[in-house]
Records
---
Amino acid sequence: MALTGVLRPGHVALRVMDLPAAVTHYTEVLGLREVGRDASGRVYLKAWDEADHHSVVLRETTEAGMDYMGWRVDSDATLDRFAGELERSGLASETSWIAAGEHLATGRRFRFTIPTGHAMELYAHKEITGCATGYLNPEPWPDGLQGMAPSRFDHCLLYGDDLDGTVRLFTEILGFGLTEQVVAGPDKLQIAAFLSCSNKAHDVAFIRQPMKNKFHHASFQLDSWHEVLRAADIISKKKVSLDLGPTRHGITRGETIYFFDPSGNRNEVFSGGYIYYPDKPTITWTDDQLGPAIFYHDRKVNDAFLSVVT
Amino acid sequence: MALTGVLRPGHVALRVMDLPAAVTHYTEVLGLREVGRDASGRVYLKAWDEADHHSVVLRETTEAGMDYMGWRVDSDATLDRFAGELERSGLASETSWIAAGEHLATGRRFRFTIPTGHAMELYAHKEITGCATGYLNPEPWPDGLQGMAPSRFDHCLLYGDDLDGTVRLFTEILGFGLTEQVVAGPDKLQIAAFLSCSNKAHDVAFIRQPMKNKFHHASFQLDSWHEVLRAADIISKKKVSLDLGPTRHGITRGETIYFFDPSGNRNEVFSGGYIYYPDKPTITWTDDQLGPAIFYHDRKVNDAFLSVVT
Amino acid sequence: MALTGVLRPGHVALRVMDLPAAVTHYTEVLGLREVGRDASGRVYLKAWDEADHHSVVLRETTEAGMDYMGWRVDSDATLDRFAGELERSGLASETSWIAAGEHLATGRRFRFTIPTGHAMELYAHKEITGCATGYLNPEPWPDGLQGMAPSRFDHCLLYGDDLDGTVRLFTEILGFGLTEQVVAGPDKLQIAAFLSCSNKAHDVAFIRQPMKNKFHHASFQLDSWHEVLRAADIISKKKVSLDLGPTRHGITRGETIYFFDPSGNRNEVFSGGYIYYPDKPTITWTDDQLGPAIFYHDRKVNDAFLSVVT
Amino acid sequence: MALTGVLRPGHVALRVMDLPAAVTHYTEVLGLREVGRDASGRVYLKAWDEADHHSVVLRETTEAGMDYMGWRVDSDATLDRFAGELERSGLASETSWIAAGEHLATGRRFRFTIPTGHAMELYAHKEITGCATGYLNPEPWPDGLQGMAPSRFDHCLLYGDDLDGTVRLFTEILGFGLTEQVVAGPDKLQIAAFLSCSNKAHDVAFIRQPMKNKFHHASFQLDSWHEVLRAADIISKKKVSLDLGPTRHGITRGETIYFFDPSGNRNEVFSGGYIYYPDKPTITWTDDQLGPAIFYHDRKVNDAFLSVVT
């Protein structure tokens, strides 16, 4: 196969403080479909064009944020190989195996903590329950969509301290490409890194910041700038807390809008971007251009956007 | 790297009967940029968001059609490995090595003929001359675009007899995934195959048809359905021969328009589609749904679209 | 008031052969809302952004087509004045008054037949029941829309013989402007006329053709080219008979798609166009450019589009 | 004619502090075409789809702002009638006649000051030099557009003290309709009024504010939300001062972006809206909903937007 190793961000597990309110948000506002609940009360959801059983897991607790992000790898052999390499790398800590079935419809997962403090996991099996339009003479989109109705979970942006270590882990061990970066000061310290295991402009991104294990946003894909406007309208119609947008990012050139779930976890829906290849030169933004890098139209560094995390 | 082996369709070499008219078409109508001419008179062009030196090569001769399609592989080692496997496979014929420099700015290429009669080539090196917006604090799109201004060359659709052999070559040797197929009759004979070496819905596609080595179209990527309308307007403003569209494909669900270059080679510009992964189930269309499979809105089999090839 | 006299096309009364099928089409496919039924079984519908009680009336009978088109005038005084002028003009025939209440929620109507054989009526009163978003802190669009969900009934295109007489009636008596026309042959015979009583590119249009009183289509307004694509998708998803599109008209430069109700009455949904003023020069199309005038991208005279009427 | 009296906002005369910089802005960024300069050095411009000679006039002086706004009326008779009614109304002050030719290609103008302190003028004649696509078999859009390339000058928003008097003048004398209003406090004091002489959602609007004769923005029409994004990109590419957007207004539901010319005069480009009729109920916004009324997505009262005027 031409796509090997880590195939995609397969799930994000979020902590919410009011599960019914969160489920209403993720189904009626964002427009995912609930696909199951497990014995511990976690709620599993997916977007309409995803083949896998689920891509979002919600857990009720007293503090918002991200529990972990899961990555689908191409095979058991790759899973074992990566687990071994991560164990030996010195970059991963708190490594452990989670038994098959701990997540609904999901095989064994290798859990580890990356240098920025975030929990990540790799897995090779999750039941393919199919997308909403099926695989035989499919319609281009399904009936009965509600809310913003993104086609897929796309990526997360995370904040943490040891950006260098995390970038090394993703690029040197897991084979990601560095698609874009922001560098600051005369020494061109890398303060943001956008990483891809695919043709997408990013599958995960990190910002250098003093605290470990902070969550900035989980992002979902829309088809067009027109759908970004519709999402913006839905945010107001449903009295959802808007963060920023609609606008365009300089980084990735995506068209975007940010908002918050009822627990304060930030969501993004976006469209556009470009096709990335591993031999494409990395795009570098200098900190004097941080404004347009983040929000291309405003061109201003927005403190709330940079500092509010869960 | 997560993307390995064959990375992308790197170039398509087209035969045209009037080179100046063709260059005018591919630059002013389609909106590529001419990047060079070689000693044999061939003209090299690229789209604005492509990093590589070129993606389209035009050669003047007495008959239109496609000379060959070239694929960028990830390394010299992969190039040698694939060359060996193709030699041994019994699926590739007329194999040969073309010396570095035969194409401007391009390394050695391994040329071979696939069972449907089309010439293909693999290469590991082509000069990265950069996209039009650069890699330091880039704008989202460059100034001075003309015509439809696609961001990339995307794929070709080709017609030929031994579809089974060609699909085996691309999937079993080169590692492509079968994203969609059309099957006909009670025996579900595969009559069309869409193949991807990436997250794209297709990088090349083939239709079963009695004659060898026929070219249906070369396709270029636009950002939105709005740009498809603009392309349609340009087709009429510039008195270009329209084939079909604007419309949507059932297959790939892309938004599309088809037209002809002055020699009768069909071009497509399109937007949309989905993100493909190698474990995504293949979408199958049955021949009773061939109409919506091809043109989702018309839902009619269009003879000219199916039969006019070069 | 700056807008006086005839304000707008207020309703179109269509004949259908299967009322339940028609109601399903006009509500679930087109996306109007049923607002009432009268004692004679007629069904009244309106689009979501219309203030008036209804804009479409469906009557079941054995033959499809248009019964009449109704025009809202600014006052009773204007209604009486136009009735008198039409009576005296020699251009209107079969004049009559229809009592208030014959249409639900509608005042008296002055009915007359125009030289092309179509029944028209003027009225000054129809109950304003309000648009779906209301008039106090309204949302930009309502929840619960289904189908294509146009904002308004926009215009009709009608076919008939005495185009000259009909154009005189609308321009000389009712004060419409001739926004665009098609002229044919060395004598520049007017074969199509587009007429506006507003800032719209047309409120009604006529094609010269031998038979009297033929109906080509009733048209409804969408917000964008993106919604035209969505309408095209709905046509295929719901197995509706497509006529033509999505494409652009040369005339009015609107973005459009045509389809048929279950009785064979043609519908259009469209977006775009321009702002018309009565002192704007009339746009003239010559018959050698009839192709792009009608369908700008195809640039071909389409026999079915020109000849299939009800 | 169905459109009578005041037909449209025909021109806006703006004061700029650096004429060459302003001309560069209005031609290369906004995308108007310069059509002439007069003996006093004023520069005349128009948008591509306007038939009249000009719609924007720039005058260099030491302070930015609006000199006056001009309205095309349907005839000399109407011009004389309105002049007389305005003289007698007690609502207009500083009335005067300006001779034909004082503006290039323009007939005599009746100048007056409205209760909010703004200079307005009426005129019946301006040379129709035609739009860029002409009136014989026109293309849907012209070649050679630059910048945002709006199709028309659309409206102004003005700030002043005696809102009641100005609304009376426009509605009672000039026949405008009140399309939307904002009311504040228990007494529902009208603090904003949107006025239309056409089917447009507004041709001019006023905000109640203590100072006389303040200019908030001049607005120009785009075709789509996609063009609003393109305008936003151009603002950043050309380093223009952005005010706000892209976003949607609650009022008029238009899609919009605001920015400043080099002298600090605010410009808007927008798309969308609805079709207004004089019998459409006025939309009322209450001051507790002022946030979404102005910027539907942010839903926040923006002090800079409300207070920065020229």
---
Amino acid sequence: MTDSAAPRTVAFLGLGVMGFPMAGHLAKAGHAVTVYNRTTAKAEAWAARHGGKHAGTPAEAAQGADVVFMCVGNDDDVRQVAGDALRGMKPGAILADHTTASAEVAREMAAKAAERGIAFLDAPVSGGQAGAENGVLTVMVGGDPAAFATAEPLMRAYGRSVVLMGDSGAGQLTKMVNQICIAGLVQALAEGMSFAQKAGLDAHKVVDVISKGAAQSWQMENRAKTMLDDKFDFGFAVDWMRKDLSICLNEARRNGATLPVTALVDQFYADVQKLGGGRWDTSSLMKRLGR
Amino acid sequence: MTDSAAPRTVAFLGLGVMGFPMAGHLAKAGHAVTVYNRTTAKAEAWAARHGGKHAGTPAEAAQGADVVFMCVGNDDDVRQVAGDALRGMKPGAILADHTTASAEVAREMAAKAAERGIAFLDAPVSGGQAGAENGVLTVMVGGDPAAFATAEPLMRAYGRSVVLMGDSGAGQLTKMVNQICIAGLVQALAEGMSFAQKAGLDAHKVVDVISKGAAQSWQMENRAKTMLDDKFDFGFAVDWMRKDLSICLNEARRNGATLPVTALVDQFYADVQKLGGGRWDTSSLMKRLGR
């Protein structure tokens, strides 16, 4: 995607729907990429497609890498994969974690990495699978400015916006703000769309009209019509949103923020899970309101 | 603002922060405007500025008008002002109501008007005081298509988007969807901004970053930074929002829509009123969360 970063030896750990294309963009940018994935078949498929190498463990993949990237599931995965990677990494290297996780685990990993002379960056992303595939993610980073300066040009391979937000944990905290703003917004949109249908309006036309004014949002422009058409088999899954909201609500307990609507919407997502919608897009809040 | 509409004899009833500039745009577009306002001094000031006439009652202002526009406070005001105006209006004329009111009162006025051979259009607007002053309002209309075809070119004097949404009441119902989508959205934004501050982030920078993605909204782009700066002495007042949400919640009782977050945010606005914030902008939901 970019040729502005000098070729580096890097590793990418975790080839899910996000990591697979992100690692691909690094390879296309000319970096020497070694990948690791818990399920080996995916790592083999990636290496076959992109001509890179794959390794059997995080530590093995990380050996000799200037920068190690990772994108895994949750806090426990981060502890396990980062812990193993650090054992293989050389002093002076950088470990950048794209997982959406707690600020606590980010600070914990940063401390662990520092003991070995390694810099840890928490670097969660937004933009979803499409953003990863098209290389237009937003990357919110916390950690050491010098490490950021080294890693940032590489992250540009898949990030349209790559921003240092502060010390370790600040990337995760910024991602939390993002998810808090989305949760209540999507519920409000669902209530509006459900009301429009119950009121007998041409709801598609309503969206065209009100999206020109103060009710406008990315969600309205990109999700309202699929909500009205009862299409939810795409996008960002309810199960992942609940994981993220749990991180937000736990952090709010620590910092004293009051999140009444976020907490309520998290409960609504539990309803959606009970409807069998764990893998539906977050806009499926519409499903529990009815039409 | 526009010269596409043939000059007409019109009346404008209600010269509040919206009606005053809207009537002004009609005069500037070349129409012969007679205004009425409950407080006469405002009508005199308007006539002095725009060179139009002013009348002592709605019926008097409406006499001989092809189209009578009105923009007043609530359902009771609509009943009183429209009722009086209809007594002065000629058969074949059109009464267009820009008040945000119930769909019920719109249907009631449409029936009353029809008895006298007059068409009633419910035509609430969005875009606020700035939209009215700059002539860029969105006008959501319910009623007879032929009456809409006559009134629409005139409404273009202050409306950037003027759309027929359906039968009598459909304009009001569309405006309700707009307010429902905004209520929960603004609360979500307030929770996000409050959390960002409690987390010790540079919240202005957070807004810059996350407004590029799925959390983006008109409210985030236009209200997040004023919320962070504790500025609420502008915009759309909490008292008016509560009036609008009361209309939404009553209509939902009728049509069976479930609006849990809208109902909750309405209660939060009651808290803001208790804080003395009835005239603060709706983004003042931030005030009850703390920083």
---
Amino acid sequence: MRSTKLSIITIVLVQVACLNAFTQKFENLALTPPMGWNSWNKFGCNINENIIRYTADAMVSNGMKEAGYSYILIDDCWQAGRDSLGFIVADPEKFPSGIKALADYVHSKGLKFGIYSCAGRKTCGNRPGSRGHEFQDAMSYANWGVDYLKYDWCNTEGQNASESYSLMRDALFEAGRPIVFSICEWGLSKPWEWATEIGHLWRTTGDIQNNWDIPDAKEGKCWAGGVLINLDMQQGLEKYAGPGHWNDPDMLEVGNGGLTENEARSHFSLWCMLAAPLIAGNDLTQMDPVSKDILINKDMIAIDQDKLGKQGYKIKDYGEIEVYYKPLNNSDMAICFFNRLDYPIQVEFDWTSMSLSATRDSKPLLLGLKIDRKDNYIEGQYSIWNVWQKKSVGTTSQKFIASLQGHDVIVLRLTSVTKK
Amino acid sequence: MRSTKLSIITIVLVQVACLNAFTQKFENLALTPPMGWNSWNKFGCNINENIIRYTADAMVSNGMKEAGYSYILIDDCWQAGRDSLGFIVADPEKFPSGIKALADYVHSKGLKFGIYSCAGRKTCGNRPGSRGHEFQDAMSYANWGVDYLKYDWCNTEGQNASESYSLMRDALFEAGRPIVFSICEWGLSKPWEWATEIGHLWRTTGDIQNNWDIPDAKEGKCWAGGVLINLDMQQGLEKYAGPGHWNDPDMLEVGNGGLTENEARSHFSLWCMLAAPLIAGNDLTQMDPVSKDILINKDMIAIDQDKLGKQGYKIKDYGEIEVYYKPLNNSDMAICFFNRLDYPIQVEFDWTSMSLSATRDSKPLLLGLKIDRKDNYIEGQYSIWNVWQKKSVGTTSQKFIASLQGHDVIVLRLTSVTKK
């Protein structure tokens, strides 16, 4: 009797352990927002293994690796079909060396390697999707040395998003190699409400376009928007982000020619304020110095990568002029002034009342306060570091006064001078 | 320009062809309701390859094969796990020769071979389910020579039934071997409304139990019911059935000891009236003569297998006494009188008015007419064949008068004597 009872208890324990193992994501991955490069924004379907190799080379030589970028990610169109056993096969013309060799090459550069698939029957680019092949595909990725999977949402008619992404999460876990799982469901079913235990990041928007603003998208007439639309869709999502699980307003368009220098700086800065994944999407082998300086600004990146892992948010909105706030580790904080107007203004910020006034050509701008979150951020005195000017600019004992270009930002890092 | 245009047209055509091929079931299978044997009702999880072999032997020697039974179906618990590539592996202790050898054996007897899986992560018996492995599993079945798949619905939290069954349908089609696809979703999401293009039969009920009636189930207190409950759940579903797509009120319990002879005959007769799949679930190697005579009644089976493929239905319901009707090929028809009372009665049926009266011990029974479908079935004169008495019993020019045991049926086949 006793031994029977013990056996039953053992069986139950084993089952519980198995069930737990069967339904979890890899922990301790993406404790800060992932940083890297992805092929889609620049190359779309026109990719091949040389582009990936040269990009890895460039990431090392241009300072991006040193600045913290680590993932080289192939997006859609690397697949050609499936073999006789149903395993996914890379396009032999575009990737003649195979995916494993490519992953090995990327790893040899001290970088990590990522790949793409889709929860549906076909990918967005009409390549084989993972539906019905989830465990096989996860096994292939693990065998090849993949470190990151972007998992898209095309051709998923009738599928439940949470169930579909849970399935691939579990397939990855069963395959045994820690892989960052990037959920790309475009925010359709509010993944921030269900994806914390499923993925390490989840898209909150349609695909970003290489534009500052797309008014048609704002009116809901098209699915994909520009920088401003993707930014504005993050409002209110800050409470869902944290170490290991991030909102993803989509990859960067810095360096792709659709943004002015000011706009590119704003795009990058605001993504950092949002603790967004920083996935460059430009041609790293032919990067202009301005784009490079934006992408490797270490103080800006430090705000994104702050280990407290808080997503910043808008605390003041005066219409076209906004103030973003991001709490940082060790009681530091980041403040970002953002000017949506297409002309320069002068801003004056009073740290005591946390209020902003602005002038244009010395004439006061009438600022209607649309959002005013009074979280009483400032206690005591802080020194101020201007992230883009790369210099100290006084303390919070005085008003902050600066000129702010059209479509541009000022980002300040505040450090307490009263604390020990 | 011209050649480019032609290329584009060619590509579009190829894609359309591929899409069609990707989303269809095998046609011209199960043009009449499938007939066979399944391991579950008698053996549950306690199966092995010898049971299957001996059952195939018995089906040939006991006259069932000659009577039309053709499928030998393994239900749950044949699986042990998956191999290093993710392919499903049979339990090596219970099926040491492997599934292919077993299928070959069954085929060598002139029979067909079927197997079981589940749309969820685990089967109902806690074996590996097909979720995320659909294409691999379909490939294995095709390689082994499987002819029939019963696909269950346990452990499917978050899954959409239509999508899940479509996925396996497409996986089977891609694997290329014609396989009857038996949808076992228990009727939860009204599969009769969506499964016509997906499977060849679909369960409309919970699992049948080896009982005549389970009052708790009737009141919704338990999921699985007896013969009466599964019968009554077919009301109104007749319009969804037809050649290649059948309602399935679950397998037969004839010969499993839970039914009296009258009840077993009623169960079988009513399933035949319903054009239900006739899947025996008893131990064919130890069958009593009464059960065998029921299962191989060729006139009864002919009503089930009638090529017109119409599901019969209740045309008269007098409370505990009912009349079922099934139109047959060549203007024949089947009429079934069913007595739910647990005592014998005398029935008298007037073919002109299509009305029934009944007496018990020569005293009239008060029959309240609850259902009266007036489809005006009888035109002209018909000869009458009594299916269980196996003899001619006059024509419809006279009233039909007969005694009807408790829990029993009288089944009549009518053939027009006025037609050429």
---
Amino acid sequence: LYSDKVMEHFTNPHNVGELPDADGIGEVGNAKCGDIMKMYLKIDGGKITDIKFKTFGCGAAIATSSIATDMIKGQTIEDALKLTNKAVVEALDGLPPAKIHCSVLAEQAVKAALADYYRRQ
Amino acid sequence: LYSDKVMEHFTNPHNVGELPDADGIGEVGNAKCGDIMKMYLKIDGGKITDIKFKTFGCGAAIATSSIATDMIKGQTIEDALKLTNKAVVEALDGLPPAKIHCSVLAEQAVKAALADYYRRQ
Ligand code: FES
């Protein structure tokens, strides 16, 4: 049902937690299943220097957020804004169709956190 | 959004894992969100002596399974079969309407594991 990469990131997720001194925080909800995702960013010199997430969502939400945060850590804001849930799902070697909606949470939360960062400037 | 009890069982779930020498195993899927739940039972003298679960489901699925397994551990098969998802949700001081479907997984998995136990006799 799930790829090895999904199970790896689900059982041992990266970048889980909060950043008390975050420069941007994004919180998004999933209309389909009622789950929420919160993303915390530290930004320095236009780059994402640290990133953490917390979710009440399922294994697919955890796995996609784990790999998505890995992918954008160290990137510029411009590159991070280009992250799509399609790229994240591909990096995980796919997800069952019923779980694609979970992967959207990570992409939306990153964008919401960057919007929050700009709003604070 | 979530009660203290839900957050307690979500952040520190009880009875997570597998039982390699289980007497009954139940696996059920959730048509609404595509998540799965697996329940393992040890049964001795008509009583549930041990119980563990594994799920790919969300925080509500984890919290309901954690408290449901607490509730039926040590019970007779007859009493365990009476467990309803309504009773589990009440024991958690409620769940948001969008997450009630997640609580059904635990009840169904217990019943599937008991059916598997009877099938093996
Ligand atoms: S959304 Fe699937 S178990 Fe909760």
